[in-house]
Design goal:
By secondary structure, this protein is an alpha+beta fold. It is built from five helices and 14 strands. It has two domains: about 160 residues, Deoxyuridine 5'-Triphosphate Nucleotidohydrolase, Chain A (Distorted Sandwich), CATH 2.70.40; about 70 residues, no CATH class. A five-stranded antiparallel β-sheet has the order 2-3-14-9-11, with no helix packed on it.
């Protein structure tokens, strides 16, 4: 079994969980239609989230220096983020060292599909199969004088392992769709069904209105009905970090 280990620095608290599929903004879409997008669902849950230990607010005044960000938390609590680099960058310290399998890096980014006003997460890739160094999770303000809030137990970091060198081993190429007749047939079949579905959707008596959305990709089948790969996934079930 492959392992992903978080070595927590003594005296620190790490709150980490498998990233959930649910998002507040998706819950609030009409009939929760956003959850019909399987690629969105899989991305939401594709990794683990690190959570804030303390609620705090931060605001940037637009200057470049480290003192340009003002951070405030409840009395007697230490916020999990600081202004270290300047340039409107808010820095979270991650209180552990991660260790991945040999040849695996750790992709570190902001919470996926969780937009936050006035501030945006920055992403990094770390060679955590050997590195004895901690890393930080950084967010950059997108405009000054807008106070942002991070709540207790709100995720500020999303991470997952990936194989080192996998992208560099790929040979990218561009070809015309007609060079792959089978794929072209499936595509045209899907386009025809898609156009018919959209045309009849407004008719409450139509099959499209009863179905509400086309589910072929969600179910892992091609437009012709041919089954997709056996490892097609409609949901991820990641294990939580456990204390041994």
């Amino acid at each position: 079994m492959k392992r992903l280990t978080a070595y927590v620095i003594d005296g620190h608290d790490l709150r980490i969980r498998p990233a959930p599929v649910e998002r507040d903004w998706m819950d609030n879409t009409d009939q929760r239609f956003a959850y019909r997008c399987l690629p969105l669902n899989i991305a939401n849950a594709h990794g683990w989230e690190i959570l804030c230990t303390v609620a705090f607010s931060a605001v940037w005044d637009g200057r470049k220096g480290p003192d340009s960000i003002r951070i405030r938390s409840a009395s007697g609590t230490i916020p999990p983020a600081v202004s270290h680099f300047g340039e409107g960058i808010l820095t979270f310290h991650v209180p552990c060292l991660f260790r991945t399998e040999p040849g695996s890096d750790l992709f570190v980014t902001g919470p996926i599909n969780r937009p936050k006003d006035a501030i945006a997460p920055l992403s990094g890739i770390i060679e955590t199969d050997w590195s004895p160094y901690t890393f930080t999770m950084n967010w950059r303000f997108t405009r000054p004088y807008q106070k942002v809030y991070f709540n207790r137990d709100e995720p500020f970091c999303h991470l997952f392992p990936l194989a080192r060198g996998n992208l560099e081993s790929l040979m990218p190429e561009i070809r015309g769709l007609s060079e792959n007749p089978e794929l072209e047939r499936e595509y045209k079949s899907w386009m025809e069904s898609r156009n018919t579905f959209n045309t009849t959707l407004a008719d409450p008596a139509s099959q499209a209105a009863r179905d509400k959305w086309q589910k072929s990709y969600f179910r892992g089948v091609a437009p012709s009905g041919a089954p997709g790969p056996r490892d097609h996934r409609s949901r991820l079930r990641l294990k939580p970090f456990a204390n041994e």
